[in-house]
Amino acid sequence: MVTGGVSWTSEIFNYRQQRPIGSFAGIEPSPGGGVFLPGINFVDGPWEPVNWGPLGWQYSINRKHGLGIANNWFYTRGRHTINFGVDTRRTFQDDQECQLCAGNLFFAARTTADPVNDAEGIFTGNGFASFLLGNVDGAQRSYAPMTRLRNFYIAPYFQDNVKITPRFTLNWGLRWDLAFPFSNDNQANQLVFFNPSIPNPHVISPITGQPMLGAMAQLGKNCNGCAGWDHPDMQWRHFSPRLGFAYQVNSKTVVLAGMSFSFLNTGGFEYGTSQVAVNFGNTLYGNVIFEDNGGQIPGLGQWDTTPLPSPIKSTFSPGFPANNTSEIHRHIDQAYSELLTIGVQRELPWKMFTTVSYVHSHDLHLPAALIRRNQLDPKIPATLCPDGLFRETECVLAVSWMSDAGQAVLKGLGFGQFQGLYTPYENYMNDWGNRPLIRTLVPYPQYRDISNPFDTTGADKYDALQVGFQKRTGSGLTLLMAYTFSKTISNTDSSVSRSTVRGLNQFDPESEWSVARDDRTHVLSISQVYELPIGPGKKLLNQGGALRKNLLGGWSFSGSYQYTSGTPVQITAGGRPLFTIANRANILPGSFDVNWDNYYRGLPVFNIKKFQFPGAWRVGNAAPFYSGFRNPFESNETLGISKRFFLGERVNAELRVEFDNVLNRMRVCGGDKMDNNAYDVAGLDPNNTNFNFGIVSPGAVCQGNTPRRGQAFFKMTF
Hints:
mainly beta, 18-stranded antiparallel sheet, five-stranded mixed sheet, globular
């Protein structure tokens, strides 16, 4: 038997966050015309982290289309049941993500603080006051073109179910996954990326007078600055085997086992999870960043005289200045999953059925953020900054690189001189101006940040005991129950590398392994439906006229009950000691003593002595997450009652009423509403006034789930 089919899927997301507002003093018109409201953000002081407006978002235009062709041949001969065929897919994406076209303005408390007694704005100053004065501390804005991307996938496969004996069935198969990486058409896109191995004509060494390594390149062939290749290498050895069996022990018991090897939708083939349009297609189309100066002088200035400029498209050259950039590699590993399952199925009396299974999966080459190209070497803060500092400003790394102290450090580290200053490269002063010393000590100081969307060093492991119970329809009752006892460990936690909270120190990748952010130890789900045994087609009172049938028949009761462990909580420490992500705390001996009821007492919900602030410029030794410290347990019961009406042979109606969280359980907010910064401990720093470490939403009522609510609906079918 031969089957086949053609499918076409289409998703169009044209979203305009806002319309032009006419005029605004602090920002120039958009590159496409019109003035849009920028994001208004308050940092430091009592207003943190309040923001107004659309956070710079102007619009998103995203059109995704997909063509699928499937062909399957089914053949039975003797003991063999064979399936073989080809799965073919072609996808298209036109993407213009203008998420920062309107711009973002940042207003700091220290701008209006007491310059003599409180220059950092800890006790005085207010970001809102800076906003009223129009003093913009920092700003960012970028423009986005329409990027057109395509890829192609084809996979021939073969599978055979072999009846070895009447009780033993063997299943085996092989799939060849041919995921062709997307190719860049330079006529449609200008995909620009960071290449660490080519010289940068803009970055001249003050020692040798020669260009230093680390420049920009274009993905493509036969163009200015092209890399000589327009797509990552094709992976031809992606074979995915499957093997499994089922053995019938007796008439009521079956043992099953299986293993498989499957490639996932990632790597050089998938341009969505790596956000190619945003990370590589937007670079040349304008990117404006004004960093804060770390002092009281606003980084941008007074918006009446210096409005945030409109991004201007750049002409490509290997050395054109790019604040933020991303890298892509010629060889990119595609993620794959190894799966093993072993289980027993058992039929029980009274139409009941149960399964018990062990499941193990191991995923490799997942998207991650463990490769930090522009990370500061941990030896530098360890050498230059003393132990026990409370704030980053207490170390020389936070002072200006042009200061006497900064110049002394650069001289001691062997930097060369240009125009009387020790500097990482000759044009650094023009590019970055008066910035903190730490900026000069990163591997590629010509760039603010270098991301790696194609970092595939992530992995995870999942082990679970799964128990299922089913009461099939009988006497009007259907019951389903599933329980999972599991553990997931990982060194990454997002399908998009930019969204991961891991990757603090690339020199210590093992420290990123911990229980996963979405791990849940216990998951219990129960659902049931019970139809009352009265009325038409039932055992009781099944006779009578229309009135009796509609009064007594068609009643049913249903319920859905979910009980799950909370997900792990993240504990952080302020600062970015390695110029990557937020720091982690130190972990100390003792128990976590988690008690979320302390929320009602205004007390910390865990033992705050378990964590310790590691000190400014010191990397904390705590893991990203711990299994023993989780968000509150989640419970929810939903009950429903329905009534069917019999209005004739062709007309039926149903009235249904449901109540969610019918017991009105109150679950307090979790770690997302808790002060999880180990710096905020009473007595740690005499200048710190926030002693709320471990307290959930201090001074406000915070419920983490939805209170009891009901809904009713009526439908008629004819």
